[in-house]
């Protein structure tokens, strides 16, 4: 889960560039992506001036770009507040993208079983090209008091659980179990990670990676509990199922399980 495109995405980009005779990028597309990324981080939207400043654009360039994006439905504009925000067309694109993401499709039965078994919220979190992570699917908690992390929430690369899992496999699929960060060997040997109270004092999380065809983590499935809803004993009770789920989702979505990843246990996989 290193910064930048995944191994397979890089290969696709390289192949496409070779087919076209070069790797020239289109500046207007890059600018539009910067606008969307800025708006994704600002729930209240942004003004023309704010977007121009944040995206490093001249006001005239930003104005023309925003007008085009509004016309195409990618962003919206509120005449009263004079603020731009993400547009309705992105909802349709987002739903289509998630439903076509094979690891998420294969992970959903396992997420539903984990949520049913623990009554906790279960998230699918994907590494993004610029290094941050985004929650792209969620099974809601059955508890009266719920964790408020929703689909679309963003996480930094330094988030405790995500950094654990990223560092455990940062040397690649066939690195030794002792490689990576100080705790990376233990996480890699167990096949999953757990963090108690490091995000917030009352929030405990555990999660496991799903691997792409190159054997690198391309998705994290995480359980979130408040206080005694998720304890170290609960983690031990779930340990074998997490390993079984990680292996099954990886294989079913066309990924490659690292050679040193723990063996699956006797518990049946979800069909």
TrEMBL record:
Transcription keyword on record: yes
IclR-ED domain location: 89-255
UniProt domain HTH iclR-type: residue ranges: 26-88
Pfam families for the chain: HTH_IclR
PROSITE patterns: HTH_ICLR, ICLR_ED
Superkingdom of the source species: Bacteria
Alphabetical UniProt keywords: DNA-binding, Transcription, Transcription regulation
SUPFAM superfamilies: GAF domain-like, Winged helix' DNA-binding domain
Keyword DNA-binding: yes
Name this polypeptide is given: Helix-turn-helix domain-containing protein
UniProt organism field: Actinacidiphila acidipaludis
